[in-house]
Amino acid sequence: MQVTTPLSSALTRYLDLTAEQMKVTAENMANVDTPGYKTKGFDFEQEFLRQMNSSDATGPATAQTRQVDGLVSRPDGNNVSMDREGVQLAKAQLQFKLGVQLLKNEYSMVMSAIHAEAK
């Protein structure tokens, strides 16, 4: 039996999007030396809101990535900045830790409620 709450479902989507952010960042870092490669990304907050308001929230959360505008390109056409990607990765790691902690707290409260009824 799987126990889910509206908050745990939202946190699961949050963690999925955070993992997606890490994946996009890793892809950008992997292509730092690829001529012509353009940095990809997505607006985390807007994507999370879009998915929370979507009626199709059954599958794993995936983001709609797009090229990031406003970055300086090198002569080979590549615009990946390792500084920017490092900040993105650190932000995603903090978001993931926060999501895990909130999910642990949610399940702890559910377990407390179950054990309280058993007494």
Brief overview:
This protein is mainly alpha-helical. It has helices spanning 6-30, 44-53, 82-118, and strands spanning 40-41, 66-67. The chain contains three helices and two strands.
Helix content percent band: 55-70%
**Run of helices and strands:** HEHEH
DSSP, total strands = 2
Instruction: Give Rg in angstroms.
Output: 18 Å
Strand order of the largest sheet: 1-2
Described by its quaternary structure, the protein is single chain
Separation of termini? 21 Å
Shape: elongated
Low-confidence spans = none
Structural class designation: mainly alpha
SS summary, helix count = 3
Strand content range = under 5%
Please, what is the average pLDDT?
90
| Biggest pleated-sheet summary | 2 strands, antiparallel
Model description:
By secondary structure, the chain is mostly helical. It has 3 helices and 2 strands; from the N terminus they run αβαβα. It has helices at 6-30, 44-53, 82-118, and strands at residues 40-41, 66-67. Strands 1-2 form a two-stranded antiparallel sheet. The longest helix has 37 residues, at 82-118. The radius of gyration is 18 Å and the shape is elongated.
Task: List the keywords.
two-stranded antiparallel sheet, mainly alpha, 119 residues
List the helices and strands and how they pair.
Blueprint: H1 6-30, E1 40-41, H2 44-53, E2 66-67, H3 82-118
Antiparallel strand pairs: 1-2
